[in-house]
Structures are given as structure tokens and as C-alpha cells.
């Protein structure tokens, strides 16, 4: 499989209507920083409250992903689903501006999680249906670029807006306006396709699938992708065990396990990071700037990751990116000591979180390619369902672990646990590379010669001695 990821500045935008995705990504990236600040500063909540909100949100995202994927297959109303997604964000952001209790915030944030996957399937299917086979690589690359540009703009808006005091609630109205702009732009700028496709066809197209499973620069999570509804009947566990035994000699279970540990550590770290920055004494504007560094480096590094994979190989880059992420987590744990924490550690966090952004861009591309090569000639729909289920479980487990550690641990412990999870995944990635190399060698090697019986062996000896 080939991914055309290196696009800009040769081709920034494939169609003008793709610009409609810039405001919504600006809104969601800004909201990703506003929400924990709203809990911690405005509602006087705690780190535990941030983790509880994330747990509810991630659970809602997982459950609703299955439903929205099924609805996208049954009703090819791409424009309507996108408007529901974007318009729903706008209305819920406005509602959050009037919230005065944590329980109300939990409820609204859970509803945001329920509608979050509505646009994921719709947007990917819309691009598949609107572009020809030769145009799709550029189209999906443009779609990713609109996401990254919007995320950077949203954080810049948040930074300048919060330079004034008590600006968080009014910033929610600005973010709601940005979401509304995208809803209007999509409604009037896009028509539903005349040749509807299904979510299973997303799985068969590398660029489309890549845009679904990579970590969102706006939400810091990967929206789960279920091309088929999981079968939860009584025999599901038995079939899963049978599948696991069959896959023992394949690299995919190892890729799934390593990805699970990576997602677990990423969710644990990201959920705890903003509360840590608040506790370190950083102002809201500084926290926006730290997040801006992360997304800005992602935007710079992501377009060149395709060339990096071609030069160094996806296996090596996955391990290097994972190692760099672990070092970043350990560095953040080091910032919690008093000698650094008393200065607020703004510059240190700005640099480290920016490096982590570059690492996640490299990891997303390289790990996706390792996943793709294992899916060739396989039942991609079922395998991706398993991968998404594990990713969703990692999101919920990371949020739940953050809540538990918030109650009984410390930020330093959280960052150390996150780093340990990443380091534990390194030997699993190595084992996956070895398993793939063995499988490829077995596939490419010529078959052994047929066994020679005793009589044929004797005839061969006689023939060799006969002049």
C-alpha cells in the first residue's frame, strides 16, 4: 500500500469546500483546552473532575461510533450528518457557557461525545464519493491539512483571547460561532453524492482509513472506526478465542497490543497534562501557547512523514517515535520537582510538548503503515473492528486510571506510569517487526523439494556411479 502524504505546498486544497473543515477544527482544538480550564478555574473543580469528564466522553464516543457508522451505511445523508455534528457542537458550546455545576458539565460533555463520531464517517465517505480514484490521495491529504491548520488557528485564537482576564466563558461563544460557520459552509457548499458508498469501502482505501485512525490534533484521541457492527451474541467470545489462536503466528496481535499501550499512555498523559499546567501556575494564555506548540510541530512534521517512512522504514520510526514520547513523559515528570516547578516551567513545557507533537505525527504514519501491511489479503473490516475496540478500551482505561491516580497519586506518578507504558510497548513493536519479517520470508521463499523415497534415492546413487 502507498500513502501520498507529502502534499503541501504542491497541493494545499483539492476543492474549495474543504475549507469548511477549518473553522470546526479551530473550534474543537480550542475547546479541548477550554474544557479542563473551565472545570479547574471557573467551576473550581479538581484533576479528578477532569478525568471523570474524560471517562464519560470517551465512553460515549465508543458507543456512538458503532451507531453512527451503521447510520452512515443505511442513510447516505453526508451533509446532514456533518451539520448535526458541527451544529451540535455549536449549540452545546453555547450551553456550556451558562453552566454553573459540574454535574451539568458532565452531562453536556457526554452528549458532545455522542455526536463527535457523526462527522467522522460522513466526512470520509463524502470525500470518497466526491473524488475519483486518481484524486483521492490529494483529497484526503488536503482534508488532513485543513484539520491541522484549523487546530493551530483555534489555539491561536484561544491564546490571544485569554490574554484578557475572565475570558474563558466568552471564548466558548467564539468557538460556537466557528462551529456554526462550518455547519453553514457544508450545508450550502456541498451536495450529497449520487453514488453512495459504505463504511467498509473506507477500510479498503489507505488514505481514507489513515485519516480515521490517526490521533486527532483537535481532540487528542482517535475516533474509533467500526466498519462493521461488532457481534455481541453468546458465541462472540468463543469466536474471538478461536481467532486469537489462529493469529498467534501473525504480527497483527502484537501491533494491536503495542497500539493499546501507546493509546493508554497517551490518554493518561493528555488528560492529566492541562491540570498539571494549571497546578504549576501557568496562565490560561500560556496553556494555549503550549498546546499550540504541539499542534504546530505536528503540522510541520506530518507532511514529511511519508518520505521518512520510505527512507528509514516504518518499523524503525515507530520505535524511535515511541522512545521520544517516553523521554518527553519522563521530562514532564522531572518538571514536577520543586526546583523547576517554582518557575512555572513554561519554556520547558513549550519545548517538550512541541517535541511530543512531532513524535505523534511520525508515530501515526509509521504505525498505520505497519497496520496496513498486516491487513493485506485479510478481512480488514473485522480486524479493524478489533483494533478500534482495543483503542476505545485504552481511551476509557486511560481516563479511568487518571481519575484513580488523581485521587490517590500525583502528577509525577501519572507521567511515570505513562512513560512506563510506552517503554513496555517497545519490545512488542520489535516482536511485531520480527514476526512480519518471518512471515514475509516464508511467503517469498521457494517451496522445499518433494521428499525423496528410499528407492528413488538408491536409483539416483546408481545413476551417479554409472559412466
Features:
single chain; 467 residues; mainly alpha; Growth Hormone, Chain: A; 76% helix; disordered N terminus
Describe this entry's structure for a reader.
- It is a single chain.
- The protein has helices at 21-42, 47-74, 78-96, 102-115, 118-130, 136-161, 168-189, 199-203, 206-213, 236-246, 252-279, 284-301, 305-312, 314-335, 338-341, 346-375, 380-408, 411-444, 454-465.
- It is globular, with a radius of gyration of 24 Å.
- The chain starts with 20 loop residues before the first helix and ends with a helix.
- The model is unreliable at 1-7 (pLDDT under 50).
- The protein has 19 helices and no strands.
- The protein has one domain: MFS general substrate transporter like domains (Growth Hormone, Chain: A, Up-down Bundle).
- Helices cover 76% and strands 0% of the residues.
- It is an all-alpha fold and 467 residues long.
- Helix 2 packs parallel to helix 4 and helix 14 packs antiparallel against helix 16 (346-375).
Number of domains: 1
Give the percentage of residues in beta strands.
under 5%
Shape: globular
Task: Write the CATH fold name.
Answer: Growth Hormone, Chain: A
**CATH homologous superfamily caption:** MFS general substrate transporter like domains
Radius of gyration: 24 Å
H/E order of the elements?
A: HHHHHHHHHHHHHHHHHHH
Unreliable spans are 1-7
Biggest β-sheet strands, sense, barrel: none
CATH architecture label: Up-down Bundle
Write the layout of secondary structure elements.
Elements: H1 21-42, H2 47-74, H3 78-96, H4 102-115, H5 118-130, H6 136-161, H7 168-189, H8 199-203, H9 206-213, H10 236-246, H11 252-279, H12 284-301, H13 305-312, H14 314-335, H15 338-341, H16 346-375, H17 380-408, H18 411-444, H19 454-465
Helix pairs in contact: 1-6, 1-7, 2-4, 2-11, 2-17, 3-4, 3-5, 3-7, 5-9, 6-12, 11-17, 11-18, 12-16, 13-14, 13-16, 14-16, 14-18
Amino acid at each position: 500500500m502507498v500513502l501520498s502524504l507529502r502534499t503541501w505546498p504542491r497541493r494545499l486544497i483539492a476543492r474549495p469546500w474543504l475549507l469548511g473543515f477549518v473553522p470546526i477544527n479551530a473550534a474543537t482544538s480550542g475547546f479541548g483546552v477550554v474544557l479542563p480550564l473551565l472545570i479547574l478555574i471557573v467551576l473550581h473543580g479538581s484533576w479528578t473532575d477532569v478525568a471523570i469528564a474524560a471517562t464519560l466522553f470517551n465512553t460515549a464516543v465508543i458507543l456512538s461510533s458503532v451507531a453512527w457508522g451503521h447510520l452512515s451505511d443505511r442513510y447516505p445523508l453526508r451533509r446532514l450528518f456533518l451539520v448535526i455534528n458541527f451544529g451540535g457542537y455549536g449549540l452545546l458550546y453555547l450551553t456550556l457557557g451558562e453552566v454553573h455545576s459540574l454535574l451539568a458539565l458532565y452531562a453536556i460533555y457526554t452528549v458532545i461525545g455522542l455526536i463527535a463520531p457523526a462527522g467522522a464517517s460522513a466526512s470520509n465517505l463524502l470525500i470518497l464519493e466526491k473524488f475519483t480514484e486518481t484524486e483521492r490521495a490529494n483529497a484526503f491529504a488536503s482534508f488532513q491539512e485543513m484539520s491541522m491548520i484549523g487546530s493551530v488557528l483555534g489555539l491561536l485564537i484561544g491564546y490571544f483571547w485569554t490574554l484578557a482576564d475572565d475570558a474563558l466563558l466568552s471564548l466558548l461563544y467564539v468557538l460556537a460561532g466557528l462551529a456554526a460557520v462550518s455547519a453553514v459552509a457544508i450545508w450550502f457548499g456541498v451536495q450529497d453524492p449520487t453514488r453512495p458508498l459504505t463504511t467498509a469501502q473506507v477500510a479498503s482505501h489507505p488514505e481514507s482509513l489513515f485519516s480515521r485512525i490517526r490521533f486527532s490534533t483537535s481532540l487528542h484521541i482517535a475516533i474509533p472506526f467500526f466498519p462493521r457492527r461488532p457481534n455481541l451474541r453468546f458465541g462472540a467470545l468463543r469466536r474471538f478465542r478461536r481467532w486469537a489462536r489462529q493469529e498467534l503466528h501473525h504480527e497483527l496481535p502484537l501491533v494491536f497490543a503495542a497500539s493499546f499501550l501507546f493509546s493508554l499512555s497517551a490518554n493518561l498523559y493528555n488528560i492529566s497534562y492541562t491540570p498539571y499546567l494549571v497546578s504549576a501556575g501557568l496562565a490560561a494564555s500560556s496553556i494555549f501557547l503550549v498546546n499550540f506548540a504541539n499542534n504546530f510541530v505536528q503540522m510541520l512534521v506530518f507532511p514529511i512523514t511519508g518520505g521518512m517512512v520510505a527512507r528509514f522504514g516504518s518499523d524503525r520510526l515507530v520505535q524511535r517515535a515511541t522512545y521520544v514520547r517516553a523521554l518527553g513523559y519522563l521530562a514532564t515528570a522531572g518538571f514536577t520537582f520543586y526546583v523547576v516547578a517554582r518557575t512555572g516551567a513554561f519554556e520547558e513545557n513549550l519545548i517538550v510538548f512541541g517535541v511530543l507533537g512531532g513524535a505523534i505525527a511520525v508515530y501515526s504514519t509509521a504505525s498505520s503503515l505497519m497496520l496496513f501491511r498486516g491487513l493485506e489479503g485479510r478481512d480488514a473490516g473485522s480486524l479493524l473492528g478489533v483494533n478500534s475496540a482495543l483503542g476505545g478500551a485504552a481511551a476509557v482505561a486511560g481516563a479511568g486510571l487518571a481519575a484513580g491516580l488523581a485521587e490517590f497519586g500525583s502528577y509525577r506518578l501519572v507521567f511515570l506510569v505513562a512513560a512506563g507504558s510506552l517503554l513496555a510497548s517497545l519490545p512488542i513493536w520489535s516482536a511485531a517487526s520480527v514476526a512480519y519479517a518471518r512471515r514475509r520470508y516464508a511467503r517469498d521463499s521457494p517451496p522445499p523439494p518433494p521428499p525423496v523415497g528410499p528407492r528413488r534415492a538408491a536409483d539416483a546413487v546408481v545413476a551417479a556411479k554409472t559412466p
